[in-house]
DNA sequence: TCCCAGGGATGAC
DNA sequence: GTCATCCATGGG
């Protein structure tokens, strides 16, 4: 039963943009609240002026975990400065102000974005819930060892399609090598990227998502179909660069803020704040 | 019926 | 290195 309320200060934070910009697949909107799990606790979160009201079922204080998850301590002014320098974006980004990069559990980020390839967000969230309800306790996302106990066919029944073998492969490997996630975390971006891409089903784009949202490698610049459209329009007019070229361009231009800029571009294009031809 | 979705693996050239 | 094709699935 969700009955205890904790208040967390959250200045310059846009909860809806943050949770609805395709970073995380386990949060569902219910009225004004978002239901989900942060560091093992089932929560309902509501933004009220410049605070978050956390509805939970224990007296344990979670403000530190929540501030960490939503990256609330970060000063976003450098990001805003960079957005102001981009054509069109400079006049349109304000309605997304306070959108922040999530710092989610590494395994959950890895698993979530294996599900994301050639898929849409709504269906990814559906599959995510199927996994939680079928392979776990209905709250937590299943651990690698838990998934590894099932047969791949079970994952197909839950709607993963050809991604079933990819998720099963990652689950089996990490069940046997649980320390591997930590070695990725400790590696610099480029090295970490190679490690993440060694998982079957994870290429350049998914690796960047995993590194950005699950390992806090902020120079990662995922180029999906939406980011490709806006980036080519803004910086590669009339050309057809590879996604990798665009990512390199972005890392050179925006450095450790590339991931943040990408999040504003992705969300802006996807919800119609930024226009593409 | 075809196209698309936060793509990746594979093989041809 | 670049390009075409296939891969499950559901919504438009």
- Total DSSP E strands: 5
Would you identify the CATH architecture of the domain at 106-214? Orthogonal Bundle
Biggest beta sheet attributes:
5 strands, antiparallel
Helix count from the secondary structure assignment: 15
Reading the helices and strands in chain order gives: EHEEEEHHHHHHHHHHHHHH
**Proportion in helices:** 40-55%
Task: Give the averaged pLDDT, no decimals.
Answer: 97
Note the main attributes of this structure.
Endonuclease III, domain 1; 5-stranded antiparallel beta sheet; TATA-Binding Protein; 277 residues; globular; 49% helix; DNA-binding; alpha+beta; 5 strands
Characterization of this structure:
With 277 residues, the protein is an alpha+beta fold. Helices cover 49% and strands 10% of the residues. The chain is built from 15 helices and five strands. The chain has helices at residues 15-19, 63-69, 77-84, 89-92, 106-115, 121-135, 144-148, 152-157, 164-176, 180-186, 189-197, 204-214, 225-235, 243-254, 258-270; strands spanning 4-9, 28-30, 33-38, 41-48, 51-56. It has a five-stranded antiparallel β-sheet. The longest helix is centred in the middle third of the chain and has 15 residues, at 121-135. The chain is globular, with a radius of gyration of 19 Å. The termini are far apart. The model has no long low-confidence stretch (mean pLDDT 97). It binds a DNA duplex (13 and 12 nucleotides) through residues 22-23, 113, 116-124, 126, 156, 159-164, 166, 200-206, 209, 222-227, 242-243, 266, 270.
How does the SSE layout of this entry go?
Layout: E1 4-9, H1 15-19, E2 28-30, E3 33-38, E4 41-48, E5 51-56, H2 63-69, H3 77-84, H4 89-92, H5 106-115, H6 121-135, H7 144-148, H8 152-157, H9 164-176, H10 180-186, H11 189-197, H12 204-214, H13 225-235, H14 243-254, H15 258-270
Antiparallel strand pairs: 1-5, 2-3, 3-4, 4-5
The protein binds a DNA duplex (13 and 12 nucleotides) through helix 6, helix 12 and helix 13.
């Amino acid at each position: 039963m969700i009955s205890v309320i904790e208040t967390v200060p959250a200045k310059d934070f846009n909860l809806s943009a943050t949770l609805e910009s395709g970073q995380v697949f386990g949060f569902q909107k219910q009225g004004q609240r978002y239901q989900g799990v942060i560091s093992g606790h089932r929560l309902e979160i509501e933004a009220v002026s410049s605070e978050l009201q956390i509805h939970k079922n224990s007296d344990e204080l979670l403000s530190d975990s929540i501030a960490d998850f939503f990256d609330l301590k970060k000063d976003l002014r450098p990001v805003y400065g960079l957005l102001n320098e981009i054509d069109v974006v400079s006049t349109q980004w304000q309605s997304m102000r306070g959108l922040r990069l999530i710092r989610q559990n590494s395994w959950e980020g890895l698993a979530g974005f294996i599900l994301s390839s050639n898929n849409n967000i709504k269906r990814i969230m559906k599959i995510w819930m199927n996994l939680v309800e079928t392979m776990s306790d209905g709250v937590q996302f299943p651990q690698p060892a838990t998934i590894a106990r099932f047969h791949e066919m079970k994952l197909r029944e839950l709607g993963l399609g050809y991604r079933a073998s990819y998720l099963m492969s990652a689950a089996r490997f990490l069940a046997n090598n649980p320390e591997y996630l930590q070695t990725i975390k400790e590696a610099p971006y480029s090295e970490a990227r190679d490690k993440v891409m060694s998982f079957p089903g994870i290429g350049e784009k998914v690796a960047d998502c995993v590194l950005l949202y699950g390992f806090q490698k902020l120079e990662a610049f995922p180029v999906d179909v939406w980011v490709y459209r806006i980036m080519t329009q803004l910086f590669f007019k009339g050309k057809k660069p590879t996604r990798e070229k665009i990512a390199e361009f972005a890392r050179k231009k925006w450095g450790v803020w590339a991931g943040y800029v990408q999040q504003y571009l992705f969300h802006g294009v996807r919800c119609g704040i930024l226009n593409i031809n």
